[in-house]
Write a structure and sequence with these properties.
Layout lengths: L5 E3 L5 E4 L4 H11 L6 H11 L1 E4 L2 E2 L6 H23 L4 H5 L3 H7 L1
Antiparallel strand pairs: 1-2, 2-3, 3-4
Length: 107
């Protein structure tokens, strides 16, 4: 399913979105370092990196792990839930929480 050009974050903000291309994926893998081996981290980071603008103000794609974290902080929990509904409509709760439920079920 294609990613919409813009969504409502759920808390009054608007996020402009884009789908990652192969070059973006390689940049994200490089930025992730060892975390690239974690499917949950990469899934979460892909949602974060899909945001290209917040309320019309451009957002650069993060090029470091800390940059991904900082953008994630700007997006916030409510924003991540909105992104999860777009990127993983079949399982938004799991995607929005980095597969936390899956990890809990394994213990």
């Amino acid at each position: 399913m294609p990613v919409p050009a813009e969504i409502d974050s759920g808390d009054g903000r608007r996020f402009a979105l884009r789908e990652a291309n192969p070059g973006d994926m390689l940049d994200l893998i490089e930025a992730a370092g060892a975390a690239a081996g974690s499917a949950a981290w990469m899934r979460y980071a892909l949602m974060i990196c899909s945001v290209t603008a917040i309320d019309g103000k451009p957002v650069m794609m993060p090029v470091t792990k800390e940059g991904v974290r900082e953008l994630g902080r700007r997006i916030g929990n409510v924003g991540m839930e909105a992104l999860a509904r777009v990127h993983y409509p079949e399982e938004p709760e799991m995607a929005a929480h980095g597969d936390r439920e899956l990890d809990t079920a394994k213990n």
